[in-house]
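[READ THE FOLD]
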Amino acid sequence: MPLHKTILFNPNTEILLWKITESLAELSAEVTLNPKNQVRFNGMKSELHQRAFLSVRKLLQLKGYTDFDLDYDQFGKPNLKDGKHISISHSHEYATLIISDEIAGIDIELQREKIIKIADKFVEPEWKFLDKENQEYIRKLTVIWGVKESIFKIRNEAGISFKEHINVFPFHIEDQSGTAILHFQNTSFHFKYHFIEIDNFTLVYAFQQKLQK
């Protein structure tokens, strides 16, 4: 079944995960795109990307929305016309979204060794609690990337550096949650995040907390 998992985080927040098994033709027959998104879709060179794009719209349909309820701002951040917050992510055969009354961000990533090679590009304060010899090293790096990506989607501001501005505090895989902070332009933004692991993928979703100046 394409709808792989639903997480009702609270009465006002839901996470939906879609496993992309349909062909592009099947999805295209079931989804109608608004003119702007049709242009985006037509410009995609990867069929996998196109299928993920349409799968997200299938998830929207399950919640009573259509693509005409979804728009993107000038920075590419998605918005729903009814004012609810939405964040979208996809990786390989999975597409996911979060819809909430709270400001939220979501990311899904495949756990793979490749992340070790790029760790220096997004990890800085986290080196204090990471152990490269630990069997959980790749899994923890994937969580950290997912957290930072989710936070970036929430703030969506040019100039934010995953390595220099976002700090993920120590966590344990079994906790499936943690906290992080973004220091940017003399302001601190606090976040609470949660994560689950599914079929060697890590799904992370984060919420912005209080603002301190």
